[in-house]
């Protein structure tokens, strides 16, 4: 199933589901203290802990940050409040609107560029490039070449994300950890830290799975209700949708019923995926 056309603006159905549907205030998984019982109300707190931990991996005295795939700006706000100057980039029109309406008026030291990282072409270098759950959205090599280009000498790339543990192709949209580190080194980025936090993010996957698994049966019940209530109208509408939007219909079904649920399956996650906080240093000027 090809989602690229539907993800290329960075506004995926899944992201909207979590923010608008579930009410999350951040787009990353969060970091749970070991042994903490799971509760939806604690997700925001876990997400805050994630931000604090990731940003604690920055070197000292950071002034400028390129926040790649800035989402809805919770990391940017945290860094801005620490006095850093943040350039946020994302191709998403709805995220741009959110920044323009809610964040830029309040934080002079934040700006927003709507673009894909792989296409970014500006004349500036940064102390840190931050990729908080965004590095899977663009090709690994191009993303790391861009990072080498935009980092000052001595600057850091800090990444928090899911990686494939090995060569198996399940979850092939994710970068393989070993290849990522190798490709970073080829692009002048030397690994400084590599922390496995899989057992502190899996809790959010479990919560998401527990929500998503109810979508198919609930949808069936609602559709069945409409079918019976509005037999004729329902038939016409469903015929129109499947005739004029067959691909869109299949993609929505796949995200909500199949692939989305598979991606959030905690057992599959633990089998194939490792969640890492990584820091790389650019040693040589280029
Ligand atoms: C899972 S969200 C993470 C958001 C945020 N960094 C956070 O930690 O909450 C992924 C982000 O990457 C952005 N994105 C998608 N494609 C991108 C691309 N080609 N270049 C840069 N950002 C991209 C999405 O719009 C979104 O902002």
Tell me what the structure shows.
With 286 residues, this protein is an alpha/beta fold. It folds into two domains: 4-8 and 22-202 and 271-282, Rossmann fold (3-Layer(aba) Sandwich); 204-263, no CATH class. The protein is built from twelve helices and seven strands. It has a seven-stranded mixed sheet with strand order 3-2-1-4-5-7-6, with helices on both faces. Helix 5 (93-103) links the parallel strand 2 (85-90) and strand 3 (110-114). Helix 3 crosses helix 4 and helix 9 (215-229) packs across helix 10 (231-244). The protein binds S-adenosylmethionine (SAM).
CATH superfamily of the largest domain: Vaccinia Virus protein VP39
> Please, what is the average pLDDT?
87
Largest sheet: number of strands, sense, barrel closure: 7 strands, mixed
Q: N-to-C SSE series? A: HHHEHEHEEHEHEHHHHHE
Strand tally is: 7
Oligomer: single chain
How large, in whole angstroms, is the Cα Rg? 20 Å
CATH topology of the largest domain: Rossmann fold
Shape: globular
Count of DSSP H/I helices: 12
Tell me which ligands are bound. S-adenosylmethionine
CATH architecture of the largest domain: 3-Layer(aba) Sandwich
Question: Spatial order of the strands in the main sheet?
Answer: 3-2-1-4-5-7-6
End-to-end separation: 40 Å
Helix content: 40-55%
Number of domains in the coordinates? 2
* SSE class: alpha/beta
Assigned CATH class of the largest domain:
Alpha Beta
